[in-house]
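Hi everyone, sorry if this is the wrong subforum. Our group has a chain we'd like a structural model of before ordering constructs, and none of us has done structure prediction before. Sequence below.
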Amino acid sequence: MLESSRDILNISLAASVIVLTILVAWILVYIIKMFRDAQRALHQMTKVIEKLSNVLDVIRDKVHSAAAVIPLIVKGVEKVTDIIQRTKERNSSRRDSSKKTTKTETKRPSGS
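Answer:
Right subforum, don't worry. Here is the predicted structure as tokens:
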């Protein structure tokens, strides 16, 4: 079997090629696992970014719809305050006129 030093060299080369092949395969397995984990992480990040984008779209739509409604609300509040001021002015003018009439009515009988 081992007749010369060349046979020993061939056996040692074969053994080293086998060991090298096993190491390369082992390294490839770990590299493939790393790429798979990276792909899963990127996929999860993509899902999170899509959800965040959807939430931001909803918020933007709500803000736009609220911005469209705010001028209407402001106009409504202005009208309500105008109506309240008018009623206060009417009530105060009625009170003033009723006070004047009661004073003049009380003065008339005493003046006669």
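For your construct planning: The chain has a mean pLDDT of 87. Residues 11-92 form one domain.
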